Amino acid sequence: MASYAAATFRNDSNAGFTLPCEDQPKRDRFAPWWGMETLAENMQQAARPVGRRAVLGGMLGGCLTLSGCDFLGFKTWQWNQRLILEVETPQGVVTGGSVVTIKVGSSPKWAPGMGAGGMSGRVAAGEASFIEIAPGKYLFALLDEGTEQIPYYTFFPAGDNDREQQAAELETLRGVRRVPHDRLPLLVTFTDINDPTTVQRVDPNNLAATFGPGVSLKRITLEITDEKVTEGRAKALLPWLEAHYDKRLDGNRFGTLEASNRFANDLSAGNFDTRR
After folding, report:
1. DSSP assignment, residue 73?
2. What does the CA dihedral 26, 30, 34, 37 come to, rounded to 10 degrees?
3. Helix axis angle, 36-47 to 52-66, nearest 10°
4. How far apart, in Å, are the Cα atoms of 199 and each of 72, 136, 146, 208, 213?
5. What's the burial of 221, exposed, middle or buried (CB within 10 Å: 0-12/13-18/19+)?
6. Coil, helix or strand at residue 59
């Protein structure tokens, strides 16, 4: 698997989908998955024309909407994590990070949809980690479909693929570990912080090419924490965020191969702040 820093969006499993057991008043920006209410409605609809099956369908629908998810094989886990950036500069080490909430879940094989029998996850709340390297020059570690995958590769041995067990451990685990270099998040900056179209990729191996001599990435660490989700910092720094929740950073509504600025067309406000 390529580094997280090598592409804008990655997906090692089914990351980025809405969890089936969450009470979600508004749809997530990432691709929606089967909600419990939808599943119950479909089962009840199928059962209505056939007498005894209608009773069973109604009972099953009630279980899906009223009972705990574990009852039918749906499982969910949640934890808070902080991605911490540490950068060497001519003025000394600059460090900082933001806390986000991660929600993941698994579904039984019998469940409808592409995610049946697998794991899904997303950043449920929070904003991207960022630090000011020099006056007006910022380094951002973006949120994307790989964000919820980073703790698996950071806290557990290579080759251990039991994601359900790992997710369960992450709910209670507390600590800080260095993120493997091949799992770093996508790093970006803006030549003009007030203009989203000036976004550009930053090479983690060569920050000096972007920020000047003497600037280098010391390390990126991940902390599983009880601290609250970071709020307001990204919106305060990037006043244009609110206007880009329904379009890409280049102003286009959708991603397109014909975009004049392909990189800005790949990104949206959701890469910097999950909240509308």
Report:
1. T
2. -10
3. 170
4. 45, 14, 20, 17, 21
5. middle
6. helix
DSSP string, 129-182: EEEEEETTEEEEE--STTGGGHHHHHHS-TT---HHHHHHHHHH--EEEEPPGG
The first and second tokens of residue 151, run together, are 């703790």
Are 241 and 272 in contact by the 8 Å Cβ rule? The answer is yes
**pLDDT tens-place string over residues 113-153:** 555 556 678 888 999 999 999 999 999 999 998 899 999 99
9-13 LR contacts (CB < 8 Å, sep 24+): 9/144, 9/145, 9/146, 9/266, 10/144, 10/145, 10/146, 10/149, 11/145, 11/146, 12/146, 12/149, 13/118, 13/119, 13/120, 13/149, 13/163
CA distance 32 to 61: 20
Owner of token pair 């899906």: 64
For 95-104, what is each residue's pLDDT tens digit?
Answer: 999 999 999 8
Q: In this structure, what token pair is assigned to residue 54? A: 């209608």
- Give the pairing type, strands 175-178 and 216-225: antiparallel
Q: Are 267 and 248 in contact (CB under 8 A)?
A: yes
The residue among 61 and 34 whose pLDDT is bigger is 61
117: left (phi over 0), alpha (psi -120 to 50) or beta: left
Closest CA to 138 of 82, 186, 99, 187: 187
Beta strands 75-89; 92-106: pairing state: antiparallel
Whole-angstrom CA distances from 39 to 61, 103, 189, 228 are 8, 20, 42, 32
How crowded is residue 154: how many other Cβ atoms within 10 Å of its Cβ?
21
Predicted structure pTM score: 0.73
Q: Which two tokens stand for residue 147?
A: 């964000």
